[in-house]
Amino acid sequence: MKTVILKRDAFGKKQHRYHPGLADFAKHHGFVPRVCKPYHAKTKGKVERMNGYLRYSFWVPLVNSNRQG
């Protein structure tokens, strides 16, 4: 996985320098990336739970249902 945030507060407070691919993707789809505080487990867990849900509760059952059909 590539680094998403190249430099924190590069352009001012809460204005980070992002990976060019992510910046283009966000601009194209009309959203602004929001980062978690470093070493702050309470905010990081909210993001990781969504990834876990997509991986284990959505994607795996979807793939298995397609294999059976």
Describe this entry's structure for a reader.
The chain has two domains: 1-35, no CATH class; 37-69. It has helices spanning 20-29, 41-68; strands at residues 5-7, 17-18. The model has no long low-confidence stretch (mean pLDDT 76). With 69 residues, the protein is mainly alpha-helical. The chain is built from two helices and two strands. Strands 1-2 form a two-stranded antiparallel sheet. The protein is 55% helix and 7% strand.
Short structural description:
By secondary structure, this protein is mostly helical. It is 55% helix and 7% strand.
Total count of domains: 2
Helix segment tally: 2
Given the C-alpha coordinates, what overall shape results?
Answer: elongated
Strand order of the largest sheet: 1-2
Helix content: 55-70%
How much of the sequence lies in strands comes to 5-15%
**SS elements, strand count:** 2
**Uncertain residue segments:** none
Distance between the termini: 33 Å
Order of helices and strands: EEHH
In this structure, how is the largest beta sheet organized?
Answer: 2 strands, antiparallel
Mean pLDDT metric: 76
Q: Determine the structural class based on helices, strands and strand pairing.
A: mainly alpha
Radius of gyration over C-alpha positions, nearest whole angstrom = 16 Å
